[in-house]
Amino acid sequence: MMTAMVTIHTSPLPDVTIPEVPLTEYVMRCAADIPDRAAMVCGVTGRSYTFAELASHIRRFAGGLVGRGFGPGHTLALMAPNVPEYAIIFHGVATAGATVTTLNPTYTAEELRHQLQDSGATLMITVGDVLSVAQEAIEGTSVTEIYVIGDAEGAESFTALYGNEIDQVPVDVHEQVMVLPYSSGTTGLAKGVMLTHYNLVANLEQMSTTLTYDEGEVALAVLPFFHIYGMQVLMNGLLASGCTVISMPRFDLEGALRLIQDNKVTRFYAVPPMVLALAKHPLIDTFDLSSLQQVFSGAAPLGAELAAEAAARVDCEVVQGYGMTELSPVSHATPAGQGKPGSCGVTISNTECRIVDEEGNDQPVGGEGELWVRGPQVMKGYLNNDEATAATIDADGWLHTGDVARIDDDHHVYIVDRVKELIKYKGFQVPPAELEALLVTHPAVADVAVIGVLDEEAGELPKAFVVLKPGHEATETELRDFVAGHVAHYKQIRMVEFIDEIPKSASGKILRRFLRDQV
Predict the structure, then answer these.
(1) What does pTM read for this prediction?
(2) Measured by CB atoms within 10 angstroms of the end CB, which terminus of the chain is less buried, N or C?
C-alpha cells in the first residue's frame, strides 16, 4: 500500500530565534532604552504613559495581585474597550504569572456568563459603562470581585489593587497559559483558546521579519485589544517595537482620520470595512493622511480591487495578512513593498503550510485545498475541550484552519473559500450554531439554519432560514428582535427567510451550500 506524499510549503523568510522568556519581558524590552517616549496614549482624553511609566504601573499592579495570593493557576477577566490601562492590567497579570481572559464589552450578560464560567475567572476588571452588565453576568460564576478602570459608582478603581513593584513571577513559558481569548474555531460555540507565553512571544518574533518599524513610529489602535489581532499585532507588537500606540475605544471614521492627521500616524491596522471607507468615503479628502506609510488589513479577506482603490486614495500601500486566534494569531503577512493583488502575504518565519484537498491529498503550488499550518504559534489547545482540540490539531501538530487556499510561485497565499461555517461580520466571528441554538428556543420555530450573505461593507451578513411549527406564526421583525435580546450587536440576524424545510445530509448535517445557492 502506497503512502500519500506530503507536500510541505515552507516560509521564504529566514528562520528567527525565539526567546524563551515571559511575554512582558519581551514586550517591554525597549522600555529602558526609550523611557520618556510615549508608549500608550488615549485618543479621546490624551492621557498617556511613557514606556518607563507603563513598566512601573505593570510591576505595581502585578505586585498587588501577588500580594493578595493571585498568581499561577488564577484567571482574571478583563472586559474593556481600548484604553491605555488595558496594557497595564494585561501585562500586570502576565507578570504575576496568572492568566487573563479577554471579554467583549458589547456582550450580553448571558454571553459573558458562559465565558466567565468556562474560564474559571475569580476577579474581573471592566469600565463603568458596562459595570451593570458585568455585575449581572457574574451571578453563578466564580468571580467574587469587580473593579473598574476610571471611576464608577458601585466599584473601586483597579488601582486599589496596586502594591509594591515586583519582577516577573517565574513561569514555565511553554506550559503557562498567559491569555485565554475565546474563539469559535471552525465551528460551534466559543471555546477558550489556551495561548502560552511561548506561543505569544514566538508569534511576535516571527512577525519581526514582515512587520518592521522605523524609529519613533506612531500607530492607531482602533481594533479591539480583547480580540487577538488588536491584542498581539497592535498592543503587544507595537510596544515591543518601541512604537507609540494611540488607542481608540470605538471606531469613528472622522475621529480616526483626525488622530492620524494630528499625531502623524504612520501605521493604520484595519479590517475590510475600514478599508472600504478609506476607498470611498468623502471625508477622506478633508484630512491630511500623508504620514501614513502602510494600511494593514486582517480578520477577514480583503478584495484586490478594494485594496488598490484605497491605496490610490490615501497614497500608501494597503496590504493584508492572515491568521486565527488559535495561531496567536499570524501565519501569513505581507512584507513591506511586496504586496500582490488578493494575496494575504507569505508564510511567516518558522512556519510550515500544507494545502490539502477534500480527499486528503496534498496540493502543489497552484492547487487548492484546506490550509493547514504548523509552527510554534499553534495554540496549546482549547480549554476543557479535548475533543475540539483533537479535531483542530492533528497528531503531527498540523492545525486545520477551515479555510481554502492556494499558494503561487512567489510563495504568496490566497484565501479562496471557506470550509468552516463561521460568518465574518466586520471581522468578528459569528458562529451559525450559536444563533441556530438560540432561534429554535423561540416558540414558533421548528427548525433553522444560518448562513453568511456577502455584503460589500460588512463582509458577510447573518441570514436565517426558518421553518415554522404548524399552526404558528412569526414575523421577520419578531425573530430579529428575539435574537437581538440575547446576543451582541455584531451577531444579530440581519435577514430572515421562511422556508418549508432545511436541507440536510443523511446524518442530519445542514447543507449550507444549497441555502447559499438560493441567495
Answers:
(1) 0.88
(2) N
Whether the pLDDT of residue 3 is over 60: the answer is: no
Handedness of CA 36, 41, 47, 49 (dihedral sign): negative
Over range 388-397, report the average pLDDT. 96
Mapped onto helix, strand or coil, the DSSP state of residue 348 is: coil
pLDDT higher than 50, residue 257: yes
Amino acid identity for residue 407 in this structure: I
10, three cell numbers: 515552507
State the residue for C-alpha cell 483626525: 258
Cell of 345: 502575504
The bridge status of strand 346-347 relative to strand 352-356 is unpaired
**Confidence at 2, pLDDT banded by 50, 70, 90:** very low
pLDDT at residue 458 in the model: 87
First and final C-alpha spacing in the chain: 45
pLDDT band at 188 (very low <50, low <70, confident <90, very high): low
pLDDT tens-digit series, residues 34-63: 999 999 999 999 999 999 999 999 999 999
User: What pLDDT, on the 0 to 100 scale, is given for residue 4?
Assistant: 67
Rounded CA separation 112/130 (Å): 11
Question: What pLDDT, in 10s, does the model give residues 357-376?
Answer: 989 999 999 999 999 999 99
Residues 201-213 have pLDDT tens digits of 999 999 999 999 9
The residue type at 190: A
Cell of 199: 506561543
Please state, in angstroms and rounded to a whole number, the distance separating the CA atoms of residues 150 and 235: 20
423-518: CATH superfamily: ANL, C-terminal domain (3.30.300.30)
The C-alpha R_g of the chain, in whole angstroms, comes to: 23
Answer whether 466's CB lies under 8 Å from 497's CB. Answer: yes
114-136 exposure pattern, b = at least 16 Cβ within 10 A, e = fewer: bbbebbbbbbbbbbeebbebbbe
Strand-pair category, 244-247 with 38-42: parallel
Q: What is residue 451's three-state secondary structure?
A: strand
* CA dist., res. 291 & res. 460, Å (int): 32
CA distances 381 to 193, 219, 325, 384, 389, Å, are 6, 31, 11, 9, 5
DSSP 3: P
Candidates 101, 38, 26; CA nearest to 247 is 38
Q: Is the peptide bond before 329 cis (omega within 30 degrees of 0)?
A: yes
Q: Which three cell numbers stand for residue 187?
A: 465551528
